Amino acid sequence: MMRLSHAMTISGTHDHYLVVLSVAVAIFASYTALTLARRIHASQGRARLAWLAAAAIALGGGIWSMHFVAMLSFSMPRMPMAYDPTMTLVSLALAVGFTGAGLASFNWQRASWPRIAIAGLLIATGVVAMHYLGMAAMRMPASLSYDWRWVVVSVIIAVVAATSAIWLVSRDRQTRWQLLAAVIMGAAIAGMHYAGMAAAIFTMNVPVDALKGAASFSQTSLAISVTIITVLILILSLGAAQLDRMFVRAARREARSTLRLKVADILRGSRAEDALTEVAELLCTHFGVSRAGLGELDPVADEFEYRICWTDGSVPPLNGRFPAAAFGVKIVAALSAGETVVIDDLFATAISDEARTLETARNVDTRSILVVPFVRDGRLRTIVYLNGREPRAWRADDISFMEEIAERIRLVTERIAVEDQLRQLNAELEVRVEARTLELQRAEGARREVDALYRAYFENTPDSLFVIAVTNDRRFVVEQINPAHARDVGFALEDVQGRSVETILPPGAVQRVLESYRRVVETGEVDHRRDFFELIGGQQHWDTTLVPLTGPDGRVTKIIGSSRNVTAQVTAEEALRQSQKLEAMGQLTGGVAHDFNNLLTPILGALDRLHHKGLGDARDQRLIAGALQSADRAKTLVHRLLSFARRQPLRPEAVNLSDLASDMLDLVKTTVGPRVKVDLEAPSDVPSARADANQIEMALLNLSVNARDAMPEGGTLRISVGRAIDRSDRPGTLPHDAFVFLCVRDTGIGMDEETRQRAIEPFFSTKGIGKGTGLGLSMAHGLAAQLGGALSIDSRPGAGTEICLWLPQSEATATAPRQEPRVANILRGGRVLLVDDEDEVRESTAQMLEDLNFELTIAVSGVEAWEMIRNGFSPDFLITDHLMPEMSGCQLALATREVSPSTRILVISGYTEGDGIDPSLLLLAKPFAKADLALALDKLNAEIPGNT
Predict the structure, then answer these.
(1) With contact defined as beta carbons under 8 Å apart, do 479 and 468 qualify?
(2) What is the phi/psi pair of residue 625, to 5°?
(3) At 704, which helix (H) or strand (E)?
(4) How far is CA 50 from its chain centroid?
(5) DSSP string over 204-265
(6) What digits encode the pLDDT tens for the residues 907-944?
(7) What is the pLDDT of residue 217?
(8) Count of CB atoms within 10 A of residue 44's CB?
């Protein structure tokens, strides 16, 4: 009831019954409109427009009817009221138009907040416009104005309530949510109306008495009549919607029945792939989706292969292979569990919220999906899918029907596959029967052919084959041997067939062979073994494989054997082991020689110091001189051992063979021992040979060792050097006479012709396994050939052996090693940093440097010396050992050269070749005397400009 306090205003009253009736009309109209709105979503084309118009009329007309009834419920005492028909009809048109626009703007499949807000605002606008235009249509002896605050409240009520109602109905289309939305929308319409009435201010144009009033009978009757007519119209609209829904359901059932029949006919009458493509087309058309098809999961590659796909042309077909993970781990997990995946909007569902899933959805232009899986033996095999470009609310009956069709597809395709397999099996059976018949006809011929092939292989293979029969009393009898076996063991088949194995084999081998046979019989397993026998006058090694052959009762009845003579292989393996031993000995020799050089250095230094001091009497001087000479000889011997131990390429140069043989004489005597007399014939006028001195020394030593081994009781070894032209027995393969020879002759047991011919073969040896490598003569022969010469062997049993190396003469003349004088004090001193980790070597070298008047600083490691230099110490000379822990002498020298270029550097090493030493550094080999050290330092001085 409106009550205002001004003198010229008047208040009106409402009929409470008509108020309730108006609210009921608003709610009923809202429910009807929302029900009709569902038909908008379910229809297409003109039917969709018709249902949109019906919903707009229902809601707009209901709003207008509610307003009309509410206005009829309002009365003012002695205040006649009438309505302008034109404006009243315009208000009705506004209500219908704005509500229709609101319903048309709303997307029932994809409810977004912007769409909800627009729809709510349009409907609220229609309600507000209809109300205030209807109020303006009133005709009465009073003027009408409004309280703006209540106007704002009425507008807010209309907008908020209409938007809330649209939001509620968009969340769920169940009846309970629709009723709630209708109640809210009806309450919004009524609330807005009565809030608008509260805003109205009526000012009388003439004085009247203030009396309580109520709607007149004519107003009430008219309100009830309008309500009845409105309700009847709404009921008819609901009935029409229900009938339409029934017709649609009936049409859907008919369409589904038709689809079932078509699917069944297609699957029965067409090729599988063509039939499935047609079914995909039917599904796409029936469900109104953009894409339909089938995919198969490859469990190994974890990829879906899409071979069947049909689209409506708006999206590309989904063909080829795609990683399963591209469609989302959650989706694939649900499908693997046998669940049908139903997604209304891929961009608004938790199961599809993975980044890769959304990326794939965008790439294939898909928003909604329905996927039915086929799971067999606990694993996902196939899927049937529907894709839509737009969000879609999948109905429960759509899902169940799709699952039904998918099951029919599965059953029919599996039945077709089974029938195809049966037809294929029948065809294969017929082919097999025919093939088996041919096989039976050819069996005898095939058996004879196999026997012939087996006999041909058995008789002609170079492998030794044999068959041993196992008797019931566990005796082993020879049944067959092939010609290769007979040839290798030295007896024929007729000599051994039917005989027990123990009567044939050598006594020493019988037990080993019988144990192998018994092991094969007991275990039934193939046996591999290596045996050695004394056959055909010598020891032979054989690799044998025994294969058991069982009878029907599972008992081993025969043993089939295959043997191979591996004597040559065993000999070669032993020779290789000996070669590896020699290599290891060479490495060991190098290490021992290095350590011996470190020991000789202080000895030679001390003896040299005593010799130059002239201490003692004449006898002491002779003893010191003898010891110094022995130390020099030991130095030479160690250097020779290092030359033997190292590996190096061939370096031909002019070599004086006479001097080389003379230098080697002591080493040869030491090597062959006291039971062998060593003679040397080495004229000084023999021309130089073009050869590698180190390799020739090694060859001479090997030939001397062979000569010693050929004289077990002792004898004479003669080394001779000369011109090839002086001998008539020089090899005919030499191209000219410009050759020299180096021969080693012994008085040993000699060789027969067969042994002489094979003597230069690698690994050939007459010394027995473990007593020689068989490489000495072959290496000497290879050396001579590589140098362009030859090797000759002259030997007879009991008459000894002479082996000669024939080497080409050198055009150059061999230069004798420069003998540096033993001098002292040829330097004028300077600051020296001495570095060596060996105490004795360091002390001996320090004494020599002090005798040479050097100012000495000592470091016991490369690291200590480097710290001194890095901290500013700058010596004139750096003398460092090479092999030291943590930091080698070469590393120290190169580092020192970087920070102190003026320091002269000398590296001393027990290895004569300077392995690992920078070639730009001067090397002094251990052991050395004071004169050697002085000469080396003098060379360093000579490298400095201005020094002489």
Answers:
(1) yes
(2) -65, -40
(3) helix 693-709
(4) 65
(5) ESS----------HHHHHHHHHHHHHHHHHHHHHHHHHHHHHHHHHHHHHHHHHHHHHHHHH
(6) 888 765 555 677 788 888 788 878 778 888 888 877 65
(7) 40
(8) 10
Q: Take residue 715 and report the two structure tokens written for it.
A: 């004898």
3-class SS letters over 714-752? CEEEEEEEEEHHHCCCCCCCCCCCCEEEEEEEECCCCCC
CA distance 838 to 599: 9
**Sequence letter at residue 844:** S
Least confident residue range of 291-300, 363-372, 601-610: 601-610
CA distance linking residue 222 with residue 82, whole number of Å: 13
Tracing tokens 């000579």 back to the chain, one arrives at 942
Q: Exposed, middle or buried by CB within 10 Å (0-12, 13-18, 19+), for 48?
A: middle
CA distance 803 to 583: 25
37, 173 Cβ separation under 8 angstroms? no
Helices (H), 820-861: 839-851
Q: What's at 267, amino acid-wise?
A: L
Which pair of tokens denotes residue 434? 């025919």
Helix or strand (DSSP H, E) at 343: strand 341-343
Alpha carbon distance 740, 810 (integer Å): 10
Residue 157 pLDDT grade (very low, low, confident, very high; cuts 50, 70, 90): confident
29 or 787, which is more confident: 787
The greatest distance separating any two alpha carbons of the chain, rounded to the nearest whole angstrom, comes to 172
Provide mean pLDDT across the span 657-679.
86
Rg (CA), the chain: 59
Q: For the segment 422-440, what is each residue's pLDDT rounded down to a tens digit?
A: 888 888 888 888 888 888 7
Distance CA 721, CA 742 (A): 5
Mean pLDDT over 819-847 rounds to 73
| Cβ count within 10 A of residue 887 | 17
Q: Is the pLDDT assigned to residue 817 strictly greater than 60?
A: no
pLDDT at 127 over 80: no
Token pair 């003679």 is found at: 679
Q: Which of 163, 135, 164, 167 is nearest to 151 (CA)?
A: 135
Cβ pair 224, 166 in contact under 8 A: no
Indicate yes or no: pTM above 0.85.
Answer: no
Long-range contacts of 492-495 (CB under 8 A, 24+ apart): none
Beta strands 830-835 and 854-859, pairing class:
parallel
Strand partners, 321: 305
Enter the tokens of residue 714.
């002792």
| Beta-sheet pairing, 464-470 with 556-565 | antiparallel
CA 55 – CA 31 distance, rounded (Å): 10
Distance of alpha carbon 701 from alpha carbon 664, whole angstroms: 8
Number of other CB atoms surrounding residue 353 within 10 Å: 13
- State how far the Cα of 217 lies from the Cα of 17, in Å rounded to an integer: 13
